[in-house]
Every structure is written in structure tokens, then in C-alpha cells.
């Protein structure tokens, strides 16, 4: 999986980090947001939902995992 932040849209507001249950471990806000430690991410997508710029895409691995999410 990966979390992609659109650098053109991101304003560095830090809402994603605040909203994320593991924000302090995962997110690094330094002008632009970067999800640096996805080991702690559980794919809840709260960050993407809270981003006012819709800059975050949470992308699940396909094939790797067979879950009922379609
Ligand atoms: S919430 Fe969105 S705009 Fe704000 S820092 Fe995070 S990715 Fe950037
Ligand atoms: S998907 Fe959830 S756990 Fe992962 S970075 Fe976003 S808010 Fe945090």
C-alpha cells in the first residue's frame, strides 16, 4: 500500500497528521505532508477524508490481500 500526497495541492496545514490515529508516528509535515512511516498505518483513510485540499490518496495493494472491499 502507499499514501500519495499531491504536492501541488498540499498546503502543509497538518490536519492529516492531527486526524490520523498514529499521526505522530506516520506523518511528517514540512511545508508539504509526507507519510514517512507506513508501518503504523492501518488504512482507515481518515487522513484522506479530512484533508481540506483532497490531496491524499490511500492506495491499497491489490492481489496481495484478498479482502471484500469492492
Ligand atoms: S491535510 Fe492535506 S493539505 Fe493539509 S498537510 Fe495534510 S495533505 Fe497537506
Ligand atoms: S490511513 Fe489512517 S492510519 Fe493511515 S495515515 Fe491515514 S489516518 Fe493514518
In short:
This protein is α+β, with helices and mostly antiparallel strands and 70 residues long.
Please describe what this structure looks like.
The chain is globular, with a radius of gyration of 12 Å. It has helices at residues 15-19, 23-26, 46-50; strands spanning 2-5, 27-30, 32-35, 56-59. It has one domain: 2-Layer Sandwich (Alpha-Beta Plaits), CATH 3.30.70.20. It is built from three helices and four strands, in the order E-H-H-E-E-H-E. The mean pLDDT is 91. The structure holds iron/sulfur cluster (2 copies). Residues 5, 10-16, 29, 33, 51, 53, 55-56 line the site of one iron/sulfur cluster.
List key phrases describing it.
4Fe-4S binding protein; two-stranded antiparallel ribbon; oxidoreductase activity; 4 strands; alpha+beta; Alpha-Beta Plaits; 4Fe4S_Fe-S-bd; 4Fe4S_Fe_S_CS; two-stranded antiparallel sheet; 70 residues
Strand content: 15-25%
- How do the strands line up in the largest sheet? 1-4
Main sheet: strands, sense, barrel: 2 strands, antiparallel
Q: Level of helix content? A: 10-25%
- Give average pLDDT, whole number: 91
Number of DSSP E strands = 4
Give the helices and strands as they follow along the chain. Answer: EHHEEHE
Q: State the separation between the terminal residues, measured CA to CA.
A: 16 Å
Organism: Methanobacterium spitsbergense
Protein name: 4Fe-4S binding protein
GO molecular function: oxidoreductase activity
Domain 4Fe-4S ferredoxin-type: 1-30, 32-61
Amino acid at each position: 500500500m502507499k499514501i500519495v500526497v499531491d504536492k501541488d495541492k498540499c498546503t502543509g496545514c497538518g490536519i492529516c497528521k492531527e486526524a490520523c490515529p498514529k499521526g505522530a508516528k506516520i506523518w511528517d509535515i514540512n511545508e508539504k505532508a509526507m507519510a514517512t512511516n507506513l508501518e503504523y498505518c492501518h488504512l482507515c483513510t481518515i487522513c484522506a477524508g479530512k484533508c481540506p485540499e483532497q490531496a491524499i490518496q490511500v492506495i491499497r495493494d491489490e492481489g496481495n490481500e484478498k479482502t471484500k472491499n469492492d
